[in-house]
Amino acid sequence: MLPELIERGVTIDFAFIDGMHTFDYTVIDLFFADKLLRKGGIICIHDMELPSKRKAFRYLLGHRKYSQLSGLEEQFRHRVGNALRHAVKQSRGRVGTC
After folding, report:
1. Burial letters 51-65, b for 16+ CB under 10 A, else e
2. Between these two residues, 96 and 16, which has the higher pLDDT value?
3. Span 25-45, pLDDT tens digits
């Protein structure tokens, strides 16, 4: 679906990467997210404790102009999680971006 979104000219402000936990699949997800993301957008990678995810993240930092947001407050993470859950709940059965 991601290549099709790129073809349609869709752009996004936020991408949440939570797919397969292998390096190759994560890099593919990051590649397409990078193509869709507007300048100044945010990519969030789930399960960063896994070596494959950290390796893919290092690859992204080495080949694109991203910087790491570290030390996020628990309250911020909680608010983002709630916002994502709300967006998913509201969009069930519809296709689009939020």
Report:
1. ebbeebbeebeeeee
2. 16
3. 999 999 999 999 988 888 888
